[in-house]
Amino acid sequence: MVKIKLKIISYLIYHSGFSEKDLELPQSITMEELLSKINLKKQFPLVVIRNGEKINSTDKIEDGDRIVIAPFFSGG
């Protein structure tokens, strides 16, 4: 069993239906698979942070990971 903490930021909350959640997964999955599970497919430009570091959609989610998903943004 893979247990993770997941936090969603900004307007993505409306698409996922939650802002923070503890998830239990039957096995390790890729970030892309997780995004599909929580209704945040690739239609949104996203930044995904795992344990304080940016990750890619093909990276595996492991037990104990803390994931933050935010919309890509810029400013100046």
From TrEMBL:
It comes from the Bacteria. This is Molybdopterin synthase sulfur carrier subunit.
